[in-house]
Protein: Major facilitator superfamily MFS_1
Amino acid sequence: MALSTTAPDRPVPSSNRWLQIIFGVVCMVAAANIQYAWTLFVPEIQKTFGWDRAAIQVAFTIFVVVQTWLTPIEGYFIDKYGPSRVVMFGGLMTGAAWVTNSYATSIWGFYLGSVLGGIGVGCVYATCINNALKWFPDKRGLAVGLTAGGYGAGSALTIIPIAKMIDAGSYAQAFFTFGLIQGSVIILAALFMRAPAKDEVKYSTKVLQTRRDYTLGEALRTPVFYVMLLMFTCTVTGGLMAVAQLGVIATDLGVKHFQVNLYFFTMAALPFALMLDRVMNGISRPLFGWISDRIGREKTMFIAFAMEGIGIVALGYFGSNPWAFVILSGIVFLAWGEVYSLFSATAADTFGSKHIGKIYGVLYCAKGFAALFVPVGNLIMQATGTWSTVLYTVATMDLIAAALAVAVLRPMLKQHHANNNAAVPNAALAHA
Structure:
C-alpha cells in the first residue's frame, strides 16, 4: 500500500486555474437542460402521445442511472486521456440526445435519447468536477461548488426560451434547436481544458485532508465510504423527485398556470418557480461549498440537509398556495444543490485527488439509486391520492442524513485522518 509524496505547498497563478473553472462552468451550463428542463416536456409528450406519466418518467430515470452508473468508467478515461477529450465526447452525446428526442415517435425513442444524454452529461459532469477537485485542493468546496453550480443554475438562462417554444406548439423544435446549441458549446469549451501538474496545487490549512492517494479498491474497503454513499442517496432523492416531478406536482396542486404578479412583470407560477429554483440551486453549490471550506464539511451538511427536509415538509403542507409553492420550491433547491459540492469535496479530502475520478464516480452512483424512486413517486401518489405522502417520505430521508452527518460521519472522518497521520511517520521510518 503505497503512500504518495506531496510537493511543498506553493501558490499557483490564479489566472491559470480559474480559467479552468470557467471552462468547466461553461460546459456544465450547456449540459444542464437535459436534466433540469425535462419537466417542461413531460406534459407535452403525454398530451401528444397519451402515454402514462410514469412510463414517460422512466426516461428521466434511465438518464440519471446511465449518467451516474457509468461515472466510474468515465473516471478511468479521464485519468487515461485527460479532461479535454472526454468532455468533447460528452458534448457530442449531449447534443445527439435532444436531437434524438426531437425525432422520437415511440416511448423507446425517448429512452434512447435518455441513454445518449446520460452518457454525454456523465462525461461532462464527472470530468469538470474531477478537474475542479484536482486544481483546487485548498478551496475544494468553493471550486467544485462553482462548477456544480453551473449545472444547477445553467438551465435558468434557457428555461423561459424553451418554455415559450414549447407553448408555441413545438416541443420537438425545442429539443432539436437547443440540442445543437448545447452540444456545440460543450465541444468548443472542452478544447481549452487540461489537468494540473503536480507542482501547480496546494492544500488547505483549514480542512482535514489526506496526503495519501487511495486507490478505488482501498477506498471501497473503508467504512466511511459507505456512510457517505448512504447519506448521498438519502439527500439526493428528494431533490431529484422535485426536479423530475415539479411540473407534474404544480399541475396536480392546481398552481401551474397561476399568474405570479411581481409588479414589474407577471409570470405563470411553474416557469417562475423553475427559473427561481435553478438560480437557488446554482447559488447553493458555491455558497455551501465556501462555507464548508471554513466550518467543515459535516457541519455544513447538517445545516443544509435539515433545511431541505423541513422545506420539503412545508412544500407538501402549503404547496397548493401558488406563492408558497414558488418560495418553498426555491428553498428546497437552495438546500439540495450543495450535495454535489459537499460530497465530492469530502471524498477528495478523505481519499486524495489522484484517483478521485474513479472514487467519486462510484460514490456518485448514489444519484442513480435515488433516480429509481422517481417513477415510484408517481405510483405512490396515484395510490394515496396526494403528493404529501411522497414528500414527507423523502423529507424523512433528508433529516436522517442530517443526523448522520454529525453523529456518525464526523467522528469517522476524525478517526480516518488520525489513522492516516499515524501511518505517515511509520512509513517514513520504514523507508529510512
